[in-house]
Amino acid sequence: MVGLQWGDEGKGKIVDILAARHDATVRYNGGANAGHTVSIKGERYALHVVPSGILTPGKHAVIGNGVVVDPESLLKEIDGLRARGVDVSNLVVSDRAHVVLPYHKDEDAIRETILTGVAEDEHTDPGAEKGDRSIGTTRRGIGPAYADKIHRATAIRVGDLLRPEALGPALHSACAMKSRTIPRIPSTPTAPSQEYDPESLLERLSACGERLRPHITDTVYMLHGLLDAGKSLLFEGANATLLDVDHGTFPYVTSSSTTVLGIGPGTGVSERRVGSVVGVMKAYCTRVGAGPFPTELRDATGERIRERGREYGTTTGRPRRTGWLDLVALRYAVMVNSVTTLSIMLLDVLSGFDEIKVCVAYRIDGVETDRFHPDARVLVRAEPVYVTLPGFAQDISAARSYDELPPTAKAYVERIESSVGVPVGIVSVGPNRDQTLFR
Ligand code: GDP
Ligand code: IMO
Ligand code: MG
Fold first, then answer.
1. pLDDT at 187
2. Pick from 98, 243, 315, 347: CA 20 to 30 A from residue 71's CA?
3. Dihedral sign from CA coordinates of 69, 78, 166, 266
4. Peptide bond before 71: cis, by omega within 30 degrees of 0?
5. Which-ligand-closest: CA of 346?
6. Of all atoms in ligand 2, which is nearest to the CA of residue 290?
7. Residue 125 has pLDDT above 50, yes or no
8. Which of 8, 16, 70, 148 is catalytic?
9. Is pLDDT at 264 greater than 80 in this prediction?
10. Closest CA to 126 of 288, 7, 249, 4
């Protein structure tokens, strides 16, 4: 299961629906930058690094090696779930997942602060506010943690939390490096006021390691063991295709492989073992943070979508940018992920519009194209070419079968299906489980 746009498509809801039919839910990328919402009987759960399948009793929930884990925030999430009566005994985390440390969060915040107000020239300003090169990250330390993984020498993995004798020296060299390389900006509230202290970090991390010990394992062997026993796995993509570090709107992306292509490296299970790919999409588009967004509506229509869809970030609370559905981007995402079935989410949010626009092509420098450009500096020049479809006045959130939808709502779904060439298996008309229409 993978998000096909810029995140927040409703992946949490779809995982919750699919988890019951699988033996394990597996996260393969990202970290606590994700915010996946599941609504069960009026109870709302926001999952960040714990797989959303944890809410389905008796199933394994696996945090794969491709995830970056902030141990203190993971424990907070575990405690929060436990306090609400959720059984977390089936949660496991890879000993090879990389650890997000406090200095990663400082570095993330400091980089963003420095880049805010640093202008690109007008022609290349890729949709960020003018004079601003920051990415608009979630400031969860995701980029710097992945950077350390690639740098290798100062990286710390979850398995290291269980070995204080190795963790101590590793933290000493990491802190020495970070104290020298992370700049001090007195005006930044997150800036460290002193050198990073390896001893206090060792204490904090060892305590986390002890609490996490029952959950830490070699998830590669575990997942292959499940497959060998004939069990089925549900991979829960975090962030989304257009935020992929290679295939998204670079540089306005996250730092991991968010598409299904990330499953192999992020779990140790080859994509050859993946059967079907559920692509999750909103009936319109949203984006949080900076970067090009060809169909963005910076007007009353965009505001109306934001209010009706309650488009405010699950992780950061930031208002999400909103716009019409972009079929050019969608076809690209379906291609990259080899999507086999689509789930269209939040269709209810579009009710009440007389007309709905969908972007069917771009005009770039006067030339029409149906090709997506996963490069912010090109995509920023794309002007959407729209077709206008009839809207639907009725509130559809009470519909309980696809047949109950008004004809124009069905026509909208079928238009998406035919232009993408992949069947729509699910249409969602509200956050709750019973607001799910199967086709
Ligand atoms: P994720 O990151 O892809 O899991 O998505 P988020 O949880 O960040 O954001 C999706 C939001 O939409 C959540 O608040 C969901 O409860 C909500 N949601 C999911 N499906 C629907 C739907 O069909 N209609 C409406 N109105 N809300 C939905
Ligand atoms: P889910 O899984 C929406 C965005 C951030 C920022 C960029 C980089 O809930 O769909 P990062 O902190 O990852 O370095 O930020 O990516 N971003 C998301 N936007 N949903 C997400 O996750 C996101 N994860 C990252 O807003 O623009
Ligand atoms: Mg989200």
1. 54
2. 243
3. negative
4. no
5. 1
6. 27
7. no
8. 8
9. yes
10. 249
Ligand 2 site residues, Cβ closer than 6 angstroms: 3, 6-8, 33-36, 135-138, 140, 142-143, 238-240, 243, 254-255, 288-289, 314
124 pLDDT band, cuts 50/70/90, is: very low
| DSSP-assigned states of every residue in 316-338 | T-PBPEEE-EEHHHHHHHHHHHT
Q: Tell me the torsion sign for CA atoms 115, 116, 121, 126.
A: positive
Please name which of 184, 199, 89, 98 lies closest in space to residue 141, comparing C-alpha atoms.
Answer: 98
Single-letter amino acid, residue 408 = T
List Cα–Cα distances, 254 to 29, 244, 249, 418, in angstroms: 10, 6, 10, 30
The DSSP H or E segment spanning 167 is helix 164-181
How do residues 156-187 score in pLDDT, each as one tens digit?
Answer: 999 999 999 999 999 999 999 998 888 766 55
How far is CA 80 from each of CA 8, 16, 45, 48, 208, rounded to the nearest angstrom?
Answer: 21, 18, 10, 12, 16
Cα separation, 125 vs 123, whole angstroms: 6
Pocket test for ligand 1, best of 6, 15, 37 (most atoms within 8 A of CB): 37
Take atom 9 of ligand 1 and give the residue whose Cα is closest. 8
> Closest Cα to atom 17, ligand 1: which residue?
431
Look at the alpha carbons of 226, 237, 84, 56 in this order and tell me if their dihedral is positive or negative. Answer: negative
**Beta strand spans in 91-163 (E):** 91-94, 98-99
pLDDT tier, 133 (very low <50, low <70, confident <90, very high otherwise):
confident
310 CA distance to ligand 1 middle (Å): 9
Of the candidates 48, 14, 45, the residue with the CA atom closest to the CA atom of residue 34: 48
Q: What are phi and psi of 120, to 5 degrees?
A: -90, 170
On average, the pLDDT of the chain sits at 94
Mutate to test the pocket of ligand 1, among 5, 6, 13 (most ligand atoms within 8 A of CB): 13
Residue nearest to atom 23 of ligand 2 (CA): 239
Concerning whether 98 is annotated as a catalytic residue, the answer is no
**Atom of ligand 1 at shortest range from CA of 436:** 23
Please report, for residues 8, 40, 53, 337, the alpha-carbon distance to residue 234 in angstroms, rounded to integers and kept in the order given.
18, 19, 9, 15
Ligand 1 atom nearest residue 46's Cα: 7
Pocket test for ligand 2, best of 241, 243, 311, 320 (most atoms within 8 A of CB): 243
Whether 8 is a known active-site residue: answer yes
Using the mean position of ligand 2's atoms as its centre, give its distance from the Cα of residue 33 in Å: 6
